[in-house]
Design brief:
With 130 residues, the protein is an alpha/beta fold. It is built from 2 helices and 7 strands. The chain has a single domain, classed as Leucine-rich repeat, LRR (right-handed beta-alpha superhelix), CATH 3.80.10.
Length: 130
């Protein structure tokens, strides 16, 4: 009887660790998206309309930031980044590759310089890039 109780207890611990890992992973992925967007913001050297400097704030969910769209079901993950025609200047940081659910990325009609980060190649869901 004692051996069976120990086995049940061990299985319960393994199951709890599994649930914690699932929950922690979801939070880390969501915070990874936010971190990637904040890294992008930090590489903007000129924002003439102060769109990113005023709207992209950790006081609100990144899914409500201007130009950012997230998927609706499950955890919030960035699926679209549309910052076209905002007069932005800067570079694209490698952290953009952490937006693993990104399908649409439009930064046309801005003034980005430097190299495209190799991490863009990690975005296997990306369908549209301008």
């Amino acid at each position: 009887m004692e051996k069976a109780a120990t086995t049940v207890f061990s299985l319960a611990l393994v199951f709890m660790k599994f649930l914690i890992a699932l929950g922690g992973g979801a939070a880390n992925n969501t915070s990874s998206d936010e971190s990637a967007l904040l890294a992008f913001k930090s590489h903007i050297t000129y924002d003439p309309n102060h769109i990113l400097t005023t709207n992209w704030s950790t006081n609100t969910s990144f899914c409500h930031w201007l130009g950012v769209s997230c998927r609706r079901r499950g955890q919030n993950r960035v699926t679209s980044l549309n910052l076209s025609n905002m007069g932005l200047r800067g570079t694209i940081p490698p952290q953009i590759g952490n937006l693993s659910f990104l399908t649409y990325f439009n930064i046309s009609y801005n003034h980005f310089n430097g190299h495209l980060p190799a991490e863009l190649g990690q975005l296997h869901r990306l369908k549209v890039y301008h």
